[in-house]
Design goal:
about 625 residues, alpha/beta, GMP Synthetase, Chain A, domain 3, 7-stranded mixed β-sheet, 19 helices, 31 strands, about 30% helix, globular, binds 5'-O-[(S)-butoxy(hydroxy)phosphoryl]adenosine
């Protein structure tokens, strides 16, 4: 990489191998974004070409109207022509003594087709929703693609989410079938996933459960309802004609936290998502057919969907999925995996980078990381210190870092610098992807000049992969994304600024979302879980800065009666674990007498947060109970 001032530029070599070599593409795309996306869409296999590329009926919009396709034909069938015996998927299990598994494009194709036939036999039809509650094992990829093959809509639920979190997602989607596993390995322990699934399917419409035998742990079994994944596949044919999908038919629903306990089901559709998934992966990670791409995110998040499943397959590349934790059983497990498979592109979150850094650089001295070409970061702002560590210790100053900004809602990456074009600037994500128009606006909707912080918005024609609706909740869709600046401007809920070169820096969320180790939670859903406790009068949860995880939640709880404070704290923590899952556990629960409130009764979470940051508390005289702050201050 070439350093000039505070910017880094790709070397000639990097530029030469890159799909996109020059800035010109931005101008072309900017002038006619719809034409630009159409040009990309033409490289996908369609059964029938679209009639109109973009239709805007605010707050709704469509892409590639009238087009017919199936994403799995683009992921699998198309690759049989040249890549039949090439490895598509490498699976690295957690136990180090267990062998990895690989699937060639043909093997993956056969398994997906068999599973698709099995689903059909169990009564799954086009448009039906299928719940998937699986860990990082190849069967999760097979299941997702099998759904897409027959036009069923997958709704993947993160395997570390609690039974309650699974239940509400199954209730909203009305899934009649769930694909899960007996268990999986996590830091040396077997997690009994089936037990969680049993609990989660109560009071839902799930009638059939498909179980992958992964950990071979003891599980309950209900004859007639439960089916073994591998038994089902064995008897099926390796050919299943794909459902011909309309461009705007649903491909999947993926939930993200809502403001209360009710999550939002982001709806992604077939045509637009396919185009965006393919070309963002190809240009940003510079995916080539001889690459080994490793994205560390779990499949339960959008990063997993797009970059650990669809995008690498659409690009005919080899990708890796890993069951375990990157620092277990030794801190360099992730580095071993990079060397073992000759990973060329590594994509992870700042939290992981900061954790690796904390272990000290010593354990890394033996790794040269010669195969690495591009590094990626996602999910939360990457601070300058973490950026520099990643750049020097892992990328050896050779690899560009693509700091990719996007959301569950956007389906694919929308802001980052391209590896062959640059420039790269620590703590800045970069430029909007070609064809994407974003801006930074003040509260009134005025575009802000460079270096002024405001709200990040996306302007028409948005991007083909942006969500089309919140599943079964049009009000939420309108209110969350299309109310701040009217129905024609997508409000991201992120604060950002751009520098004089147009590079964008993401500052953080302006709503009640907190990013804990890159995972998205809302303070509202934690509060809803705590309020379920009968002794709780009211509570407030805020995100406070954390050295490794970026942010962590802390809770302030007012109790009706003050009995057994320690016990109550434990109960509150277990409530959160039961309602959401272990990722949401607060760092601390403070039992307090009163919460700071305005005269109209609004809890001032901002003030609570500032007790943990270095910011001044601000004017407390507008509070109805300013004395509450001093009392809380003594406790924190
Ligand atoms: C929120 C979306 C998109 C995959 C994972 C997150 C934050 C995301 C970055 C980045 C700074 C980032 C934003 C965004 N975010 N990427 N590169 N730099 N912040 O998806 O869970 O839906 O969260 O994550 O605040 O709005 P998500």
């Amino acid at each position: 990489m070439i350093k000039k001032g505070n910017l880094y530029w790709p070397s000639k070599g990097l530029q030469k191998r890159a799909w996109v070599k020059s800035k010109k593409i931005y101008q072309e795309a900017q002038k006619r974004p719809i034409k630009f996306w159409e040009k990309l869409a033409r490289e996908i296999f369609w059964h029938k070409k679209w009639k109109k590329a973009f239709l805007h009926q605010p707050p709704y919009f469509k892409w590639f109207i009238g087009g017919k396709l199936n994403i799995t034909e683009n992921c699998l069938d198309k690759n049989l022509e040249h890549n039949k015996n090439k490895v598509a998927l490498i699976w690295e299990p957690e136990p180090t003594e267990e062998s990895s598994r690989t699937f060639t494009y043909y093997e993956l194709y056969s398994q997906v087709n068999r599973m698709a036939n099995a689903l059909k036999k169990l009564g799954v039809k086009k448009g039906d929703r299928v719940g998937i509650y699986l860990p990082m094992i190849p069967e999760v990829i097979i299941s997702m693609l099998a759904c897409a093959r027959i036009g069923a809509v997958h709704a993947v639920v993160f395997s570390a989410f609690s039974p309650q979190a699974l239940k509400i997602r199954l209730q909203i989607t009305k899934a009649k079938i769930l694909i899960t596993a007996d268990g999986y390995f996590r830091r040396g322990k077997v997690i009994n996933l089936k037990e969680n699934a049993e609990e989660g399917i109560k009071d839902t419409q799930v009638k059939k459960v498909i179980v992958v035998e992964r950990a071979h742990n003891q599980i309950t079994w209900k004859k007639g309802r439960d089916f073994k994944f591998h038994d089902l596949l064995e008897t099926e044919r390796r050919l299943c004609p794909s459902a011909i999908m309309d461009s705007e038919d649903l491909l999947f629903i993926l939930f993200t936290s809502g403001t209360t306990g009710i999550p939002k089901g982001c709806v992604h559709t077939c045509g637009g998502y396919t185009v965006q998934a393919k070309f963002t992966g190809r240009w940003i990670f510079d995916l080539k057919e001889d690459d080994v791409f490793w994205s560390m995110a779990d499949i339960g998040w959008i990063t997993g969907h797009t970059y650990s499943c669809y995008s690498p397959l659409l690009n005919g590349t080899t990708f890796l999925i890993f069951e375990g934790a990157p620092d277990w059983p030794t801190p360099d497990r992730w580095a071993q995996i990079i060397e073992k498979y000759g990973v060329t592109t590594f994509y992870t979150a700042p939290t992981a980078i900061r954790m690796f850094e904390k272990y000290g650089a010593e354990f890394l001295t033996k790794y040269k990381f010669n195969t690495l070409q591009i590094l990626g970061s996602v999910g939360e702002p990457i601070d300058e210190a973490a950026w520099r560590w990643y750049f020097t210790k892992v990328g050896k100053k050779r690899c560009p870092i693509v700091d990719t900004w996007w959301q569950t809602e956007t389906g694919g990456i929308l802001i980052t610098s391209l590896p062959g074009v640059g420039p790269f600037k620590p703590a800045f994500t970069g430029l909007p992807f070609p064809g994407v128009k974003v801006d930074i606006w003040d509260e009134k909707g005025k575009s802000l000049p460079p270096n002024k912080e405001g709200n990040l918005v996306i302007l028409p024609p948005f991007a083909p992969g942006l969500l089309r609706e919140v599943y079964k909740n049009p009000q939420k869709y309108l209110k969350t994304y299309w109310s701040q600046y009217g129905k024609k401007v997508y409000f991201t809920s992120d604060a950002a600024l751009k520098d004089e070169n147009g590079l964008i820096r993401i500052v953080g969320r302006v709503d009640d979302v907190i990013k804990v180790a890159g995972h998205r939670l809302t303070t509202g859903e934690l509060e809803a879980a705590i309020n379920l406790h009968e002794d709780v009068t009211e509570c407030a949860v805020v995100g406070i800065p954390d050295e490794i995880k970026g942010e962590v939640p802390v809770a302030f709880v007012v109790l009706k009666k003050k009995r057994h404070p320690q016990k109550i704290k434990e109960v509150i923590i277990s409530k959160i674990r039961a309602e959401i899952g272990p990722i949401a556990l607060p760092k601390e629960v403070y039992l307090v007498e009163d919460l700071p409130k305005t005269r109209s009764g609004k809890i001032m979470r901002r003030i609570l947060r500032r007790l943990f940051t270095k910011e001044p508390l601000g004017d407390l005289s507008t509070l109805a109970n300013p004395e509450s702050v001093d009392i809380i201050k003594m406790k924190t």
